[in-house]
């Protein structure tokens, strides 16, 4: 599987309240800054050697070597880390304090004192202001649509004002990589410049870059104290198979890939040290259905398919139990999202109900002829599920659904596996019937529903392409409720809106939730402990996320 926007890039991640943002600890100790770190870790991705053909350390170029491999996360740092798991806490980082106003249209941050860029120059409030103005004045960099109206200094603080509430997009703001004004003010085109000389506040600098990999050395003057690992080595493998082999034989220490039967194929290779963790974030996998054409333009057919999907089989056979089975009819992963499930659906779980599904169809005018499902217009029901070739877990997932629907309902469900580029274009242009796809992720479920129910994406379509709501579901009430949730200034209003959103989702089935979509990671404890885990969810363990530097600074040499 090739991970999507919600898993391989910094994304819209939210927190529950402004009070959670008022802490001052960075999670990094202030030790003897003159001591040299020792030891090394090897981090790897399965994206192919092409990533290492050109050195691109620009944190605003998501496809560059720095962001693709994740080593930029160790050089450039954000104002704060927002945890999508555990207690959904926010940890101030380059800011010593962050605080939102009541309606989340204004953010006040206190720049951390004593921080230096790796070229020795001091980090100041001016660098924060420069970075956000750079994004504001360069639309191509504003991928999250920050809608920053104003940013200015107020004493020791920086105050940002936005033209709309940032409640659901706090992570987009807080986890932006801050860049140095003294270097970037002379960069003519920040959307294209590779920034070979990477000047950041993070604990590492680039020692070497080649087609064989990237080596980072720990700083001796890092503001967060002693860096526990002296050197990081970043490697690229051609595919998951090659990277898995490297994990198995100890060539690689830290990675993020899907592993079929991870217990046998990874953990059992060194059960005392190898760890596979799928952090159960609020992001389900869904069968996205094209609601603009038959058969999925009919809510009765969508409901029927939803009633016969075997989610237990999906968790076991497609996902190798990398995450828990998806059980709530709301599509909200549990137990992470228990607190958000509407009272009407607290105890409503998915069940396979073939007879119930057939009744829904027959009541809507469907019939059967020689076992084949016939729609109310007399046509045999047929559709194709598509996902890219090589995405084994997703392809297995759609094969399971096709088999189930064909067997239980008699619809002619086919499977297609185009290349990834073709599939991506098909999704954006609506050239599909159905596909298995991830959803947005955050510390509340807004992104789950925004991805499949927000009609605003249809209005923003360019050249017939949409960036989300690929199923083109158009329900003005749902769109208005999503906007109401995002702009609300109190929890009661948000809760009321979310409950109504869930009701529409359950009753109208704009997409078919099928499984959880955890943030995957593999690591070992042979040389270092302190990693995040199911028992200590202070962050996900994905080495490409903004929190990778937080994970690194929490490590301790194994005894």
From TrEMBL:
<feature type="domain" description="Solute-binding protein family 5">
    <location>
        <begin position="90"/>
        <end position="446"/>
    </location>
</feature>
<feature type="signal peptide">
    <location>
        <begin position="1"/>
        <end position="22"/>
    </location>
</feature>
<dbReference type="InterPro" id="IPR000914">
    <property type="entry name" value="SBP_5_dom"/>
</dbReference>
<protein>
    <submittedName>
        <fullName>ABC transporter substrate-binding protein</fullName>
    </submittedName>
</protein>
<dbReference type="InterPro" id="IPR030678">
    <property type="entry name" value="Peptide/Ni-bd"/>
</dbReference>
<dbReference type="InterPro" id="IPR039424">
    <property type="entry name" value="SBP_5"/>
</dbReference>
<keyword id="KW-0732">Signal</keyword>
<dbReference type="Pfam" id="PF00496">
    <property type="entry name" value="SBP_bac_5"/>
</dbReference>
């Amino acid at each position: 599987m090739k991970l999507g926007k919600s898993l391989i890039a910094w994304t819209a991640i939210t927190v529950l309240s402004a009070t959670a943002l008022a802490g001052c600890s960075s999670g990094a100790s202030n030790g003897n800054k003159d001591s040299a770190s020792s030891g090394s870790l090897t981090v790897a991705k399965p994206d192919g050697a092409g990533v290492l053909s050109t050195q691109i350390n620009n944190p605003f170029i998501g496809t560059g070597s720095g962001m693709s491999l994740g080593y930029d996360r160790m050089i450039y740092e954000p104002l704060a880390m927002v945890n999508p798991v555990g207690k959904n806490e926010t940890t101030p980082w380059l800011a010593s304090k962050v605080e939102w106003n009541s309606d989340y249209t204004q953010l006040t941050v206190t720049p951390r004192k004593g921080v230096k860029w790796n070229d020795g120059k001091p980090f100041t409030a001016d660098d924060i202001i420069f970075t956000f103005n750079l994004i504001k004045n360069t639309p191509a960099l504003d991928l999250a649509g920050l809608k920053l109206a104003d940013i200015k200094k107020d004493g020791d603080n920086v105050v940002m004002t936005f033209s709309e509430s940032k409640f659901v997009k706090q992570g987009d703001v807080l986890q932006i990589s801050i860049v140095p004004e003294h270097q970037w003010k002379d960069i003519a085109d920040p959307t294209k410049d590779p920034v070979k000389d990477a000047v950041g506040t993070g604990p590492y600098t680039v020692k070497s870059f080649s087609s064989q990999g990237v080596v980072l050395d720990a700083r001796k003057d890092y503001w967060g104290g002693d860096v526990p690992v002296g050197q990081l080595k970043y490697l690229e493998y051609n595919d998951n198979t090659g990277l898995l082999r490297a994990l198995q034989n100890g060539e690689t220490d830290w990675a993020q890939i899907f592993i079929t039967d991870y217990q046998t194929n990874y953990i059992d290779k060194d059960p005392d040290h190898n760890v596979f963790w799928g952090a159960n974030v609020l992001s389900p996998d869904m069968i996205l259905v094209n609601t603009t054409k038959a058969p999925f333009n009919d809510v009765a057919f969508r409901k029927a398919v939803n009633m016969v999907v075997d989610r237990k089989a999906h968790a076991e056979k497609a996902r190798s139990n990398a995450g828990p089975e998806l059980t709530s009819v709301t599509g909200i992963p549990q137990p992470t999202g228990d607190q958000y499930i509407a009272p009407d659906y607290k105890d409503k779980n998915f069940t396979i109900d073939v007879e119930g599904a057939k009744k829904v169809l027959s009541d809507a005018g469907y019939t059967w002829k020689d076992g084949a499902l016939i729609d109310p217009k007399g046509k045999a029901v047929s559709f194709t599920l598509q996902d890219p070739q090589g995405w084994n877990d997703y392809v297995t997932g759609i094969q399971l659904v096709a088999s189930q629907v064909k067997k239980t309902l008699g619809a002619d469900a086919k499977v297609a596996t185009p290349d990834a580029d073709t599939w991506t274009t098909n999704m954006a242009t609506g050239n599909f019937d159905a596909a298995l796809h991830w959803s947005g992720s955050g510390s509340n479920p807004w992104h789950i529903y925004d991805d499949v129910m927000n009609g605003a994406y249809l209005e923003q379509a360019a050249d017939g392409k949409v960036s989300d709501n690929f199923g083109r579901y158009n329900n003005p009430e749902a769109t208005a409720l999503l906007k109401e949730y995002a702009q609300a200034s109190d929890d009661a209003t948000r809760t009321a809106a979310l409950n109504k959103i869930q009701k529409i989702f359950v009753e109208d089935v704009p997409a078919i939730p099928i499984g959880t979509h955890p943030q995957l990671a593999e690591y070992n404890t042979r040389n270092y402990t302190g990693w995040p885990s199911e028992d200590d969810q202070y962050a996900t363990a994905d080495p490409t996320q903004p929190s990778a530097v937080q994970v690194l600074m929490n490590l301790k040499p194994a005894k």
